Please model this.
Amino acid sequence: MPKNPRVVLLLIIILTLAAVYINIPKVKIFGIEVAHPRLNLQNFQRDLEPKLGLDLAGGVQLDMSADMANIEEKDHQSAIESAKNIIESRINSLGVAESNVQVAKSAGIYRLIIEIPGIADVDSAVSIVKKTAHLEFRTLKADAPPEATLSALPENFQSSTLTGKDLKLAQAAPNQSTQSIKDPGYVVNLEFSQEGAQKLEQITTDNLQLPMAMFLDLEPISWPPPIIQSIISDGHAQITGSFTADEARDLAIQLNAGALPVPLTIERQTRIGPTIGQEAIDKSIVATTIGIISVAIFMIAYYRILGVFAIAALLIYSLIVFAVFKIIPVTLTLAGIAGFILSIGMAVDANVLIFERIKEELRTKSPRHDAFFTGFDRAWTSIRDSNVSSLITTAILFNFGTGSVRGFALTLAIGILISMFSAITVTRNLLRVFWVGKI
Amino acid sequence: MNIVKYKNWFFALSLALIIPGVIALTTFGLKLGIDFSGGALWEIKFDSEVNLVDKNKLQEFLNENGADVSSISPTAQNSYLVRMKASDEDKLTSIRQKVAESFGQTEDLRLETVGGVVSKELAQKAIIAVILAIVAIVLYVTWAFRTVPKPTSPLAFGFCTIFALSHDVLVVLGIFAILGHYFNVEVDSLFITALLTVIGFSVHDTIVVFDRIRENLKKHKEQNFESVVNNSLLETMARSLNTSLTAVFVLVALLLFGGASIKVFILALLIGIISGTYSSIFNAAPLLVVWHNINAKK
Model:
């Protein structure tokens, strides 16, 4: 770090301005939306909108456990991945901006944790999520126009006897029949049950050289549909096509969603109506403002000029923390906001420790310059040791908690880390330049 | 001012706070929220123009339809918060439909359900987290004070920290056992979060005092242990009180003006932080003296 406090001060000002820039909210002036700052780095893109959690935005969170009773152990992972994918695509079909589906495993039970913030019609969202995936293999209708063979439309197809129940497993694999080793292309191998193999033999016999379409939840997948090349009697089919590895894997996942249907049961849910969320936001803003103002009044009344510096440091601290929340991004919940506000308390504490120490040194008649340096040095061990203990508890909270508990632990931990930084750089240099004076 | 001299009075005051709490804890126990007991929490608002709903009528109606209501309380004009044991999705859906049919238009402000498996898991996790936090902190404090000059042992610092934080945990648990019994205040995951945060804060306070004791022990080798501890306490007093005051300011602001769903959480934090400040000044450091005296007699 540069030795010259004025240079450090300049860096702090630049950092603060950057934080202010990041924190600028979307505003409308005379109906024109003023452009919002964005981060557009190569692997790091952020729209820098504050992310609101369930209790602020309204919406629903579902923890669903997967019933794996009918699925072989080795296929558990792919079954849950397939279930996750299908739920994601269903939620996307609702037109929700930000949803999040996570797989969690604890005590041998697979769970999907689904968050859909800001959704108005919660009931239909829940029922859509709860459905078990339905996979169908469809063949051309008898009355389909002849040109449908080549350019078939989804409505030209009708259900066949073959469904997801008959499919045992779908797997993506490199195409072994091509000559090119460099770019073999990928295929999807399908394995059918015994019953499925019989149905498949019948269908391939009746529809040779005709397309066979696959429909998941009544939506066609892998369009245009593959053409049946030969009669398949052993229950092992292969979908060829010029798939890349990713495409083949995605198709296999979609097929498995129907092949390994995982019944999901709601174990825990939280639904928050939209009105309650807005109310919570308004209340939080009022509470935070009142909290900060009362702290400011107290600090200035008690520490006078030093208190003014502390408040300046605190404002810079708040701006930086909020900018970090936007960059990471941290999803804000009521508990998360409480964590942030508590961390303001921690930041004040660091300043209080320093000031008390400086005052003590001043009492022993040391000059202001010496009091400043010894005060800082002595206060630092307290600040460091005490904050580490708080960081230990936040780490434990983060590991054991879910949802709002994690949000609280995360915001508090970020706050504590930045408050330590703020104490040794911002407060220190503000005091050094403006209070200690020329050195 | 001599805090150490009157330490037995301060210990007595702590006991006077803790003993009723512990009695409440053992006789009433904590009132567990749905996070730990399973069930559903449903906040419902009825359209005032259609129907002003009577609380008892609603409760009767819900129970007739198998909701197994454990409590029902009004939250705002024509809105109620219903706690019930039923958590099954299909059952709840049918109950909600029937309520809408019989009482006119409703708005679901909030609906939370927790099934039996998850609630057990959450309760287990909460207990493990609290124990782990306490163990981690003793180890950390013992390590952080490893350089403390003889004859004081770093272990003394570790164990006195534990006494202080156990004090705070017991105070919060006791008060909530009483609140739970008389005012239906329930404890949930966020309450455990508050408890762990209180542990963190309490240790935070204690460390600041201990840090000063360590420094003064090295600086004033001529003084006896008791007066070093007392001087250190007086020197850090302003800081301890000021820091707590600022935390109390923001928490009171949150309690009075903040969101309704975290009120219990904030209350637990508030009680814990006040208790933490008291215990780090009036319990942890004087206990260090007690430990020291016992060792000196040997």
